[in-house]
Amino acid sequence: MSALSALSKITAIDRRWIWLVVMVAFAIPIIRPLAIPISISEDTRKAFDAIESFPEGSVVMLDVEMWMRYYPELGPTTEAFIYHVLKKNLKLVIWASSAEGAPFAETALRAVNPEKMGKRYGVDYVHLGYIAGGEKAMASLMTDIHSTVTTDYYGNKITDLKIMENVRSSKDIKTIACVISTQPDDRVRQYSITGGIKWIALTSGGWVPGIKPFVASGHVLTTVGGIRGGAEYELLVGRPGSGLISTDITSVTLLLMVALVVLSNIGYFAERAAGGRRK
Fold it and tell me: Are 104 and 202 in contact (CB under 8 A)?
């Protein structure tokens, strides 16, 4: 009976202590990422395998349309993708299809820090910045990059950048990864049909269903969706970041919630068995 009395006291724990425990559980993965293993979706694996399959020196383009307010969701995916491309010794050409896409891409580049990886700007990667025109800009890039843009994000002439010497049209590009959260029709028309490129959608989770039909039709290679997709990609490339931190937080707090539910039920039934009264 003494054991039952002790267990029955669980229901009397001040809720402020419970919230404190939840806050600590929430903070631990932020302070020290746990990199709790998660299952890798077929879609994310397909994107990873595509980059792995390209020979060294191949050109990959990154089209960034996203707004900065989406960085918490798609920043991790973008960072992991940039890291993967450079780690594989591929050439990376970045351009922004929206005004906010340029600082979005710049933020991701700074987070990856290519120079720390031994990469040189203008040789291994380039940031062309915002190119106005929407679908017309996409079409122009597929046919003649050098007539579409003359300077990069920092004001350098692209004719002075070694990486751009042999990057002139879609024929020189292996794939394009698009950081988007919009209907993909324009990119299907220009990248898939005009350029003949199967591209990868790095998109918010809500837009995955809208892009899936184009994956089924063969116009889009695959999708990497939302913060979960970013966490999966981080795990695949061996670079834990805010994506895995997010899934760590989810895993830890959910496990804690389950434990608290179990404990509260134990306390409740122990209280009844001890003849106590539910608080």
Answer: no
The token pair that represents 111 in the structure block = 């987070």
* Closest C-alpha to 78, from 185, 167, 164, 200: 200
- The set of residues, in sequence order, having a beta carbon less than 8 Å from that of 179 and lying 6+ positions away, is 62, 63, 64, 65, 66, 74, 77, 78, 101, 104, 105, 202, 203
Statement: residue 165 has pLDDT above 90: yes
The CA distance from 21 to 17, in Å, is 6
The pLDDT confidence band at residue 267, using thresholds 50, 70 and 90, is confident
Mind listing the pLDDT tens digit for each residue in 210-226?
999 999 999 999 999 99
- Average pLDDT on 113-123 reads 98
CB 233 within 8 A of CB 202: no
pTM: 0.84
Beta-ladder partners of 91: 59
Q: Kindly write down the DSSP assignment for every residue of the chain, as one continuous string.
A: -HHHHHHHGGGGS-HHHHHHHHHHHHHHHHHS------PPPHHHHHHHHHHHHSPTT-EEEEEE---GGGHHHHHHHHHHHHHHHHHTT-EEEEEESSTTHHHHHHHHHHHH-GGGGT--BTTTEEEEEE--STHHHHHHHHH-HHHH-SB-TTS-BGGG-GGGTT--SGGG-SEEEEEE-S--HHHIIIIIIIS---EEEEE-GGGHHHHHHHHHHTSEEEEEEHHHHHHHHHHHHT---HHHHHHHHHHHHHHHHHHHHHHHHHHHHHHHHTT----
The residue length of the chain stands at 279
pLDDT over 80 (residue 171): yes
